[in-house]
Predict the 3D structure of the following.
Amino acid sequence: MNRCRNIYFVCFLLSSTTGGCANSDRIHVFQSGTELFFNGYEKHIESIRHMASTINATYLLHTFRGDTGCMFLEKVEAIHNQLQRTELGGWLIYIDLDVQYNHKSCSKWLELVPEDDQCHFVGLLSPWHLNSGVLLIRVTKEARELVKQWYDVQNKSLFCKGPADQLALQNVILRYQFPDYQEECIFENKEDFTHMDKCFMEKLNPIFHNNHKEEVRHNPYCLLRCGSKLQTRDCPRDMIEGVAPYFRHEKKYNLSIPLCS
């Protein structure tokens, strides 16, 4: 993937430019969750807030409505609504509240923003499942449609445990990737979500093995693999091999990581 060379929830709006790189003064940071999570992840939030402020981004902390009974639904709804409100042509970057910025340079993560016009939605595909903790979303009609489908699947689902929002997103990805997909990776027994993850990965693994690509690419999305520096969650080998992702997705805040500059 070609990238710029010159990020419970957080969203960044990046302006569109002719060269493909974003102007940091057009970034809008949006975090969303409950008061309980705000208090529990106060240091994580400050890490992201500081990063946004340093690159001259605006910042907004949004509180869930709290009337749906499912925080996963409210997460996807927040992304969907913000994407609809955001002007076409920029980037919306979503980051979970339990994510800490993990680089000394506050702008270093911009390397992950793709120049490829085929990539409207970028996330992490780990060896086990898709992780929706950090998402880079180009504000386009195509991305809005994908996220609308994600919201619709989550809204209709009765499952609200574990990785509920990720399971809904995986189902949408399979719709795009395989024209003949028949929703077979959504099971009636939603308590046993490991089978849904297994079904998802069994469908995508041949793409990796046959093409030896770094990511799964299918307009409008690009799914990065571990080693891409996107985030730490579900990528244990990254830590062992010394790969330092830009976003540390861990519930425990690492006090040894200084704020970026």
Remarks:
- Confidence is low (pLDDT under 50) at residues 1-21.
- The first helix runs from residue 35 to 40.
